[in-house]
Each structure stands twice: as C-alpha cells, then as structure tokens.
C-alpha cells in the first residue's frame, strides 16, 4: 500500500517510514505542506498520516487539499496539538482519525490497518484464482494460503496493481526495492522465481515454451521479452 507521511520532524518521519516499510508498504515522506501536496499530485497515496504543524503549508491546508481530490483516502492526523477544538475541526474537515504525540507505534500501525479496512480502495486484489488482501497481508491461490516475505508480497502487489501492463525490471527495482534502475542486480528475477515457486506457477522454461506456441495455459506471472514481467497481459 502506498502511504504518505507528512511531518516536519525528519527523525520521526524516518522512524515511521522504516516501521511501515518493514510491514511491506511503499512510503513517501514529506517534511512540509508543499512537498506533501506535490507528492499527492505525482503519486497519489492510498493513506496519509498528516502532522498539523507543517511549514510552507499548514496541515489543515493539506487536509483540505486531500479532501478536495477524493473522499475515499483514509487520513490520520498525528499532532502534538491538544486542544479539543483542533480535533473537532480536523474531523469536521474530513480526517478519519486523530492521534496525539507522543504515541505508540504499535497503536498507530493498528489504527492505519483499521482505517484501511474501512475505507481503502482496492483492499482485495484478485486475478483468476489468486487473491491478495492488502490490509490483512494474506495471499491465497485456489483457496490455499501462500506465505510470502515482505518483499515477495510487495512485488506481487505491484504486479497486481498494474495487471494487464508490462512492468520493466527497472521500474520494479525503483518501486519495490527503492534502488536505482542501473544498480546492476538480478534481484528482480530472483524474487520472481521465488514467487513462481510459492504460487506453483510455471517455471521460466515453461513460460518460454508457452510463448513459443508449445501449448498449455498461460502462466500467472508472464515474462515479457526484452522488458520485464506482467500479470494478466494479453498477447
């Protein structure tokens, strides 16, 4: 899930990002209101954790901006402000939840999951007999549970979110591993093979045979020659 954290405390933002990335989420950190709004324009998040004391644009301005774009985005206010009227104002403006600093990370994580269950679009991703619950972080195929590591889950999630498209290795490196496209690593191919084994998908050799017209059903994760991988791409 793509999360936006907007907080002018860089250390706190980094701490939250590490914890949420460990859960397998893709996290963007903005340290002021302008950065937060630009991040929303370029890569819309699926949840926002928003401080109110932001430079350049106050958090309430960012909240108003987010709600002007969509009513579906879960928004959690995380602030040191303690005035009851601040909480009421934020909730009236469309915030879904409100936490005061200092706070427990475990509680913040639980509240984010609760908000996702209630409001996040695309909570469950499906393709054929494959089903992914993005909040509960579970995957099943043919009704049978599949146990994935955080990176395997994030890779499969990215492919499902872009199903029907060919996704390059460079894009997967940048989006799933936060690595440069020219990092010179075969980690994408390695993890694709991990996924194929766990999902009982076709091997690369079987994949190539089907592409060459040798018959058989198409693999779940398709190899797109000269580019990368895809789920649900039609030839």
Task: Please describe what this structure looks like.
42% of the residues lie in helices and 20% in strands. Helix 4 links the parallel strand 4 and strand 5 (97-100). Helix 6 crosses helix 8. It is built from nine helices and twelve strands. The chain has helices at 10-22, 33-42, 59-69, 84-93, 105-119, 150-161, 169-176, 187-198, 204-211; strands spanning 2-6, 26-30, 47-50, 75-79, 97-100, 124-127, 130-133, 138-141, 144-146, 167-168, 221-224, 228-231. It has two domains: 2-119, Rossmann fold (3-Layer(aba) Sandwich), CATH 3.40.50; 124-231, Winged helix-like DNA-binding domain superfamily/Winged helix DNA-binding domain (Arc Repressor Mutant, subunit A, Orthogonal Bundle), CATH 1.10.10. Mean pLDDT is 86; it is low at 209-216. The chain has 235 residues and is α/β, with parallel strands linked by helices. The chain has a five-stranded parallel beta sheet with strand order 2-1-3-4-5, with helices on both faces. Strands 6-7-8-9 form a four-stranded antiparallel beta sheet, covered by helices on one side.
């Amino acid at each position: 899930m793509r999360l936006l954290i907007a907080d002018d405390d860089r250390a706190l933002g980094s701490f939250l990002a590490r914890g949420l990335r460990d859960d397998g989420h893709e996290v963007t950190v903005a340290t002021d209101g302008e950065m937060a709004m630009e991040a929303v324009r370029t890569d819309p998040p699926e949840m926002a954790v928003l401080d109110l004391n932001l430079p350049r644009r106050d958090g309430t301005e960012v909240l108003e901006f987010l709600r002007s774009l969509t009513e579906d985005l879960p928004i959690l206010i995380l602030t040191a402000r303690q005035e009851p009227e601040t909480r009421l104002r934020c909730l009236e403006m469309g915030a879904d939840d409100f936490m005061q600093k200092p706070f427990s990370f475990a509680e913040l994580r639980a509240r984010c999951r609760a908000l996702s269950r209630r409001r996040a679009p695309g909570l469950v991703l499906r393709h054929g007999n494959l089903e992914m619950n993005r909040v509960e972080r579970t995957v099943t195929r043919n009704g049978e549970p599949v146990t994935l590591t955080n990176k395997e889950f994030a890779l499969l999630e990215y492919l499902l979110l872009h199903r029907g498209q060919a996704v390059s290795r460079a894009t997967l490196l940048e989006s799933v591993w936060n690595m440069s496209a020219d990092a010179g690593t075969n980690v994408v191919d390695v993890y694709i093979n991990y996924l194929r084994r766990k999902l009982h998908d076709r091997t690369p050799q079987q994949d190539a045979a089907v592409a060459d017209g040798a018959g058989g059903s198409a693999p779940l994760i398709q190899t797109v020659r000269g580019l990368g991988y895809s789920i649900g791409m039609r030839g």
